[in-house]
C-alpha cells in the first residue's frame, strides 16, 4: 500500500471508530503524525486527498475539521465524475434511473408528509400551459428531486440527484424533437403525483417505471 494510501486509511479508521466525529477538529499536524506513525508530508497528502472528497475541511489559519459527512456532501465528488461522461454512456444512466427512481417513488408514497405532497402539486401546477424546453426540463428535475427527498433516504436521494446532470441533455433533446413530449410528461407526472397522494406505493412505482422507461426507449431509438 502506498504511504499516502496508508495515511488515508488511518484517518478513515479514526472516523469509523468514533475517535473523530463530524465537526471535530483534527489534532495538530505534528501530534497526529506522531500518533499515527506517519511523516508530516504523508499526513499532509492524506489530508489534501480527503479534503478533495469532502471528508475533511481545511480552514486556513484555523485547522482541519471532519465535515458533516452527509451523503449529499460526500457524493458531490461522484457528481463531478458523472458530469465527465461520454454521450454514448447516457443510456446506462437511464438504466440506473429506471432502477432507483421507481423505488424512491414507492417509498415517497408511504413516507411523504401531507405538506410535502401539497408542494408536489404546486410544482405540477407551476408548469405553464406552453412552457419553453428549459422550463419543462427544470420543472421535470424539480419534480423528481422533490420525490427523491420524500423517500426519506438521503443516500438514495443523493444518488438520484447525481444522475440528474448526465441525463439533462437527453431530456432537452427529447423535448425538442419528440412530438407530444410535453403532454406525456404532464400526464405521467400527474399519475405519479396522484398515486403518491393516494398512498399507493405499487401504483406510484409502476408509473415512475413507465415514465423513466419511456424516455429511455425514446433515447435508444433516437441513438439508433
UniProtKB/TrEMBL annotation:
The keyword Transcription applies. Residues 1-69 form the HTH gntR-type domain. The keyword Transcription regulation applies. Coiled coil: none annotated. It holds the Pfam family GntR. InterPro entries: GntR_C, TF_FadR/GntR_C, Tscrpt_reg_HTH_GntR, WH-like_DNA-bd_sf, WH_DNA-bd_sf. PROSITE patterns: HTH_GNTR. Keywords: DNA-binding, Transcription, Transcription regulation. PANTHER family: TRANSCRIPTIONAL REGULATOR, GNTR FAMILY, UXU OPERON TRANSCRIPTIONAL REGULATOR. This is FadR/GntR family transcriptional regulator.
